[in-house]
């Protein structure tokens, strides 16, 4: 499959080599192919590797199967995809609760399979949501954009905000939890607060509304540890309602929803803000 990438350069002036290597994160092997095949032009003209590229220049690159060998994923059902935002390179969808982000076994069909069917080609996971969690989730539509989105995630430039219905009441409107999180050696499904061996975790909470026995909080992730919000809230005595691992009372869905994603588009530097509606939070909260 041929992938053609066209965009107006949003980055500061530099050489072609620097642009491809530093800003676009194109691997050395693929940069070599672009050069030898003359698969890159600036403002419609062939380039020298040391040619200057100015902000606002029109860039076109052509990638083939030698650059990115095709990957095939079984397609799911495109009708199950609730698309919130889509462009040539990425897609954000509203994940339902009870569905895995990606399959763990070859025979499984997960959200990634449904999204790939919707797009019509194999897509790639940028970040994950627990199976029980609903809300906005980002996928790359091609292997070129994937490392750029991964860098945004690693550099904490993708802001993720969640709604959680937590048990009990909080002592103040804003709280920051920094407890380190590690594996629970007694239950491989779970994570625990582990001050000695755990990984750094940072969650900022803002109280939105109080109910007789629960509180609605906005949670902003500064790090992305497995079960981070669930573990932090449970550790401080405010387990999320319906949490099958960390809340004693069962019976309803996990009341955790990724309601907002904010990031700069890596090819335009445009600020993208996507919010995901949730019927559970609109209609299912206590009055």
SSE string, helices as H and strands as E: EEHHEEEEEEHEEHEEEEEEHEEH
Largest beta-sheet details: 10 strands, mixed
CATH superfamily of the largest domain: Pseudouridine synthase
**What is the architecture of the largest domain at the second tier of CATH?**
2-Layer Sandwich
Radius of gyration: 22 Å
Number of strands: 18
Walk me through the structure.
Helices cover 17% and strands 31% of the residues. The protein has 287 residues and is of the alpha+beta class. The chain folds into 3 domains: 3-63, Roll (Structural Genomics Hypothetical 15.5 Kd Protein In mrcA-pckA Intergenic Region, Chain A), CATH 3.10.290.10; 78-158 and 263-283, 2-Layer Sandwich (Pseudouridine synthase), CATH 3.30.2350; 160-259, Pseudouridine synthase (2-Layer Sandwich), CATH 3.30.2350.10. The strands form 4 sheets. Strands 7, 8, 9, 10, 11, 12, 15, 16, 17 and 18 form a 10-stranded mixed β-sheet that branches. A hairpin with an 8-residue loop joins strand 9 (124-125) and strand 10. The termini are far apart. The mean pLDDT is 93. Responsible for synthesis of pseudouridine from uracil. GO terms for molecular function: catalytic activity, acting on RNA; pseudouridine synthase activity; RNA binding.
């Amino acid at each position: 499959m041929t992938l053609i990438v066209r965009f107006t350069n949003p980055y500061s002036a530099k050489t072609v080599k620097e642009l491809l290597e530093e800003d676009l994160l194109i691997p050395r092997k693929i940069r070599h192919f672009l050069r030898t095949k003359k698969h890159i032009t600036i403002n419609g003209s062939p380039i020298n590797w040391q040619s200057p590229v100015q902000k606002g220049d029109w860039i076109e690159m052509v990638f083939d199967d030698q650059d990115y060998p095709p990957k095939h994923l079984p397609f799911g059902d495109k009708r199950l995809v609730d698309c919130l935002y889509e462009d040539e390179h990425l897609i954000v969808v509203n994940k339902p609760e009870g569905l895995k982000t990606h399959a763990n076994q070859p025979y499984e069909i997960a959200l990634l399979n449904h999204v790939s069917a919707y797009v019509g080609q194999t897509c790639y996971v940028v970040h994950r949501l627990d199976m029980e969690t609903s809300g906005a989730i980002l996928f790359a539509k091609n292997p070129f954009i994937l490392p750029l989105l991964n860098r945004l995630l690693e550099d904490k430039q993708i802001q993720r905000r969640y709604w959680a219905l937590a048990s009990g009441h909080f002592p103040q409107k804003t709280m920051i939890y920094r407890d380190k999180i590690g594996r629970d050696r007694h239950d491989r499904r779970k994570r625990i607060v582990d001050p000695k061996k755990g990984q750094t975790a940072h969650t900022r909470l803002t109280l939105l509304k109080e109910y007789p026995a629960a509180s609605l909080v906005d949670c902003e992730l500064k790090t992305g540890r497995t079960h981070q919000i669930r573990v932090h809230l449970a550790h401080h005595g405010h387990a999320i309602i319906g949490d099958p691992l960390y809340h004693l009372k069962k019976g309803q869905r996990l009341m955790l929803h990724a309601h907002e994603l904010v990031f700069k588009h890596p090819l335009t530097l445009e600020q993208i803000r996507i919010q995901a509606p949730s019927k559970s939070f609109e209609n299912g909260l206590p009055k």
